[in-house]
Amino acid sequence: MVSISLSGPAGGLLRRLAKRAVKDGTVVYLVGGCVRDAVLKTNDGQDVDLVLETDPAPLARHCAKLLNAPCEAFGRFGTLRVLGKDLRVDFAASRKEEYPEPADLPVVSPAQLEVDLFRRDFTINAMAVEVTAKGPGKVIDPYGGLADLKARRLRVLHPQSFRDDPTRVFRAARFLCRFGFKPGAGLLESAQTALSRGHAAKLSRHRLLQELLSVLDEKDPGPALRKLKGWGYLQLIHPGLGVRARGKNAGERLASLALALGAEGESFLKSLPLERVRASELHEALALVREKASPRRAPSSLAARVVKTALPALPAAALKPLWIGGDDLQKLGVAPGKDYRGILDAAAREQWKGKIASRKQALAWLRRRLSVRP
Hints:
Blueprint: H1 8-23, E1 28-31, H2 33-40, E2 47-52, H3 57-67, E3 71-74, E4 79-83, E5 88-93, E6 95-98, E7 107-110, H4 113-118, E8 128-132, E9 135-140, H5 145-151, E10 153-154, H6 161-164, H7 167-179, E11 182-183, H8 187-196, H9 205-216, H10 222-231, H11 250-260, H12 265-270, H13 276-291, H14 301-310, H15 326-331, H16 338-353, H17 359-370
Parallel strand pairs: 2-5, 10-11
Antiparallel strand pairs: 1-2, 1-8, 3-4, 4-5, 6-7, 8-9
Helix pairs in contact: 1-3, 7-9, 7-10, 9-11, 11-13, 11-14, 13-14
């Protein structure tokens, strides 16, 4: 039998939660990806997923007190999250899932742990460990996840997995590339069947966006993007979406994909259900690159990083707020009117090119433009 160990803040917290679970007459299990990563010895211990066969709310609230952090519900399946300074701990009740139609969100009902594990995407994520006061126990592995880890193989739990939830294909690309695994028997055929029968096309833009962001959050998203492109799944998000995602995080990389679409970049971003502030920052980056003019006010940090990544040779002053404004035009005798915009736009283009690198240079340019002697 295989056992795992968790050190650091996660290990200590789990032991304390196990003691409380015993008092409450219940059992708490570590499940999913954190078990997989612990077996592979790649777990950083910062993300912890816990399942109980009873109501998880009391233990989640106790965890919140221990971490001095809020306990919040998210999603439609009753998951509770405690987000501490160094830990994210999710609590859920074990459940069964049934999919009335392909790509629908499931109908859930209470179930025992083994059934809960069967609802998951891959065998390597369908393992659990009972958490005790002494630490994690032996790995519970009803579907052969340990053997698949050893064989470096990615295998779905049943043939209808991708029909039920085509987002699992995106996860398959991530795991195959992240771990260097090979696809299990029938995995690629099942992915193609889900695509050819139109199941994957039923995915909402929200679910597609979440999967795309998860891919872009990989250490190197390129290999997974190339797989998805080859399988025909990246085209579900946009027919022309490329595979070269530049930047240090998912937001920057998403913007780089939009920039690579050229004139279609704006409409691509608008098609995604992005959070309002993030959408504004990404559109700001695309506008700066399109207009090739220095902004009137300082761009957001995300927009600035995106532009610098896309245009590494851009002059340092290009993203500085325009050195001159309407007050400077008035002082030089220009009456307010339509000429203001034309003059300031011209100055912004010159500053973008690096021909104006300071306020002093901007004022000198303006005097020359207006034929005003210093």
